[in-house]
Amino acid sequence: MKFTIKTDFLPEMEFLVIKGFGKLYDQDAQITTKPDEDTWTTIRRRLSDGSVQRLKRAAGSEPVYMLFCNTCVRRDNEKCYVCGYDIACENLSGAKAGHEFEIVRLKPCEYAVFDCEFNNEISLPQAHEKPDRLFWDEWLKVKPYVSAIDDPINWLGNGYAAIELYSPFEPDAERFKAKISYPLIRKNML
After folding, report:
1. From CA 117, how far away is CA 35, in angstroms rounded?
2. Domain count along the chain
């Protein structure tokens, strides 16, 4: 993986989304399926059943994003958090929420932006893992920020999510680019 990292301020954004989920397991959890298996099975189904094309048309926007951690709910019996992992398009048309799509509004804030290029070393469903480790285990430790999505007060849809953009957005792509933007709060602002 080749990558660059920068910080950038992004304005308030509104997305039209297909609600999804992902699971963040505790280190001592006994996992019976791969953590991304259920998530990417759902994403593949949404791509093949026309949902993503309908989302693009309704939002008036072509790029497809993944929004991570808009909501988190603890499941102690599974030793995990179930988090929002939504398929999203920027809502350029001003479409309203309906039976198929919901609205997610993200607050304006600074983001750590990881621009990555993958060339056959991993599949797209695992592409977030290395940037995630770099962000939480290395980058944040030496920067004057905390992650806006790490604070439980922000787990209830309070306007923060990591924004993932994959190009091409094809789960089986062997070569692709990923732009993962992690929302930040300056430590001196807490």
Report:
1. 23
2. 1
Asked, for residue 121, whether it belongs to a domain, the answer is yes
Identify whether 183 is part of a domain: no
Task: Domain of residue 70: give its range.
Answer: 2-177
pLDDT digits (tens, 9 = 90+) for 69-103: 756 778 888 887 778 889 999 999 999 999 999 99
- Give the tens place of pLDDT for each residue, 125-158: 889 989 999 999 999 999 999 999 877 666 666 7
1 pLDDT tier (thresholds 50, 70, 90): very high
Tell me the C-alpha distance between 170 and 161, whole Å. 22
Q: What CATH number does residue 125 fall under?
A: 3.20.80.10
Cβ atoms 129, 68 nearer than 8 A? no
The answer to whether position 186 is within a domain reads no
Does residue 35 belong to any structural domain of this protein? yes
Amino acid identity at 109: C
Q: Contact at 8 Å (CB) between 145 and 134?
A: no
